Recover the amino acids of this structure.
């Protein structure tokens, strides 16, 4: 989704990737990496989300949207148990009205994106997270 | 993006990085342990086999097959690693 949204926006504005990079406030190389679907850092994701005026979960839509939120939360917590505490706090913040309803979705989408796209040990241990957010069979 | 959303995402980022670093350290520790075990095997296996089998006929056989015994222990390590490390959270 990130790639598609960026490409659509560039097409709509008639901009080159270099112009997009300047407008977003990041390097040309980083935008090229994003367009190629490679892992980009969180700060760039935040900048792109702000530039496109979309949520992180919208930007990272391809990562686990097919499952219910509960299943996706369980999947990322299974991979990184330390996320449970963060999700609990986020849930409390949503309940208290300090954050909006989409916060949990943003967190889960970003965690799934990072676990998937970084190509790290998680894949070796658990199989690559499918787009549905579950580890695929080996 | 709201600042509290960005803050939460940064915490998620740090948590995943932290876990990854822990995992890498564990891999280094496992590799180092295996190297230490190999050196210890080379240095002390003869003595241990002698102590265990007390000059029996079996001692000579095992002494000759020390290389195979080492490979067998390595295979057990690899099997245990594959079986249990997989289940670890990170």
């Amino acid at each position: 989704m990130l790639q598609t949204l960026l490409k659509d926006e560039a097409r709509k504005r008639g901009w080159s990737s270099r112009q997009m990079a300047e407008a977003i406030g990041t390097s040309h190389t980083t935008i090229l990496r994003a367009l190629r679907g490679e892992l980009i850092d969180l700060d760039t994701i935040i900048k792109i989300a702000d530039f496109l005026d979309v949520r992180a979960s919208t930007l990272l839509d391809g990562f686990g949207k097919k499952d219910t939120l509960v299943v996706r939360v369980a999947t990322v917590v299974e991979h990184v148990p330390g996320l449970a505490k963060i999700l609990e706090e986020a849930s409390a913040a949503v309940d208290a009205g300090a954050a909006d309803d989409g916060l949990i979705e943003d967190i889960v989408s970003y965690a799934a994106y990072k676990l998937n796209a970084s190509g790290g040990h998680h894949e070796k241990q658990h199989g690559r997270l499918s787009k549905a957010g579950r580890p695929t069979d080996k | 993006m709201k600042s509290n959303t960005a803050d939460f995402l940064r915490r998620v980022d740090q948590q995943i990085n932290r876990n990854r670093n822990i995992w890498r350290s564990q891999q280094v520790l496992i590799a180092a342990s295996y190297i230490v075990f190999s050196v210890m095997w080379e240095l002390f296996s003869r003595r241990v086999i002698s102590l265990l089998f007390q000059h029996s006929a079996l001692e000579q056989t095992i002494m000759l097959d020390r290389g195979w015994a080492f490979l067998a222990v390595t295979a057990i390590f690899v099997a245990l690693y594959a079986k249990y490390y997989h289940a670890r959270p990170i």
Summary: The mean pLDDT of chain B is 84. The radius of gyration of chain B is 22 Å. Chain B has one domain: 3-87. The CA atoms of residues 47 and 65 of chain B lie 14 Å apart.
